[in-house]
Amino acid sequence: MTTDNLAAFDGLTDSYNRRIDYLRISITDRCNLKCIYCMPEKGLKHFKQSEILTTAEIIRIVRIACKYGVRKVRLTGGEPLLRNDIVQLLSGIKSAGIQDLSITTNAQRLAGMAKALKKAGLDRVNISLDTLLEDRYRDITRGGEIDLVWEAIAEAERAGLSPVKINVVPVRGVNDDEISAFAAMTLKKDVHIRFIEFMPIGNNGAWKPDAYLSKDEIMARVTSAGKLIRLPFKGGGPSRNYRIEGAAGMIGFISAISNCFCSSCNRLRLTAIGKLRPCLFSEITVDLKTPLRNGASDEELEALYRSAVLSKPASHTLRDGSLGHPSLSPMSQIGG
Ligand code: SAM
Ligand code: SF4
Description:
The chain has helices at 3-8, 55-67, 86-95, 114-120, 134-141, 146-159, 179-188, 215-222, 289-293, 298-310, 331-334, and strands at residues 22-26, 72-76, 100-105, 124-128, 165-168, 192-196, 228-230, 240-244, 250-254, 267-270, 275-277, 286-287. By secondary structure, it is of the alpha/beta class. The chain has a single domain (3-334), classed as Alpha-Beta Barrel (TIM Barrel). Strands 7-8-9-6-5-4-3-2-1-10-11-12 form a twelve-stranded mixed sheet. Strand 1 (22-26), helix 2 and strand 2 form a beta-alpha-beta unit. It binds S-adenosylmethionine and iron/sulfur cluster.
């Protein structure tokens, strides 16, 4: 890539004509849980606090992303609600011009914060919940309390952070016997259950071919709760959405492995230590933090942002390369 090429590049769409309008930001690599499919039992070595982007740095990067067409931001981690400046972050990001602001959280801290987060500009929330059983929840998360999640869901709905989306990662032999129970939750309640295929990411030894369930297998189990009606595909998100006939809520499937959705991928990721990562499954990153802390101008940061858009690969190679050999950075460090 020459400087001339980069200067001519608009930064709105990538080399494969995908419009990049979504930035997913990991605001911390720390977490108050250690889910078995995400983290090793002994935990992970954390980045130093001084390496993590500050509130002002994140907001400055979001302003630049906004200039290049980003309208949706999701805060994730690690556990985003561990950051003490979460309210300031949300309001700063919203004021930068973001129209759709959401978080993904394990909800252990959400109940008492939902109203304040909504007031600060949060539009929606995704809550990770992989089982409906109290003891199993404690086992999967290595210490989490499911009651806090139920309280958080109720509180989020009261605060207007709806529809609440629930992320479920089915893992064979762990929680796959609850797939139809999750699907049945949508019959009476306007929740959105999203089944996410277990991905071989993070070197924690949890991913095994036998533990993985494909979208088709998950779907076959969902249909025992009722007939699935396909809903129109909206936006560039990865979820393919359905509704059980007559149900109040929705069911989505995110199938990075069995049905790669790379051709419609609309996102970049920003890691907690300030690296733009154009693809979850590629270690190619563009460092923004170092130049930012060395006094880079907006124009210089914009050029780096555009180079990240330009370096977005056409597709991941999970099927033909690393599948079965988890070697990518842990999800909690990249921002799932
Ligand atoms: N701590 C927050 C939470 O759990 O919601 C946000 C970060 S977490 C890394 C974001 C999402 O990634 C969660 O919904 C989690 O279930 C999902 N996730 C983590 N490891 C995964 C894996 N190996 N395969 C698929 N999804 C995974
Ligand atoms: Fe923490 Fe979320 Fe990973 Fe669970 S999935 S260990 S809550 S970052």
